[in-house]
Amino acid sequence: MFGMIKNSLFGGNEETEFKLLSTETKDGVSYEVRRYDNAKYATVSSEGRTFDQVSGELVRKLLMYIGGSNEQEEAMGNTAPILITVFPRDDGAMMRRLVVAIRVPQRYQICPPTPTDSMIKIEDRPGMTVYSLQFGGFAGETEYRAEALRLTRTLGETAPYQRKQYFCVSYDPPLKPYGRRNEVWFIQEEP
Q1: Considering the entire predicted model, what is its pTM?
Q2: Residues 145-170: what's their mean pLDDT?
């Protein structure tokens, strides 16, 4: 626990690098198209509870892992953003299933410390191109759903993106009171 707090207060934030492919504005809504490289992520998942009921608990598990709750007791430093994969129903509501992920810091990409929590898995995730819409404030299920709907309307029906899942993205520690950065990412279909 101390490692997580120390990491949050004194550690630097290693932000995931990306290549900006374009910045678009349509109907007054600006979004970016970005390319992310493949990387290792620590992940934890849940089924049966809502986004707001379980997302904070799962994020804490991952922050504990990178803060030193691993077999090597290695405090790795913070990375951003945290990605929460959600699975929307046809009506836009989120299913009671989500996967929370945080990129393993660059220094540990080759050999990440082994999690002590059996719920945490290390995944090799492929590179991806995303449509990204940024917004501020504290974000829960309601805010992410509203922004996902806004991005859906902006992109239109013909845009090539995956519709069975999307990412709710947060860059800030939970206690940051203002200037918060959140995003919704839709994964572009690869040709």
Answers
A1: 0.90
A2: 95
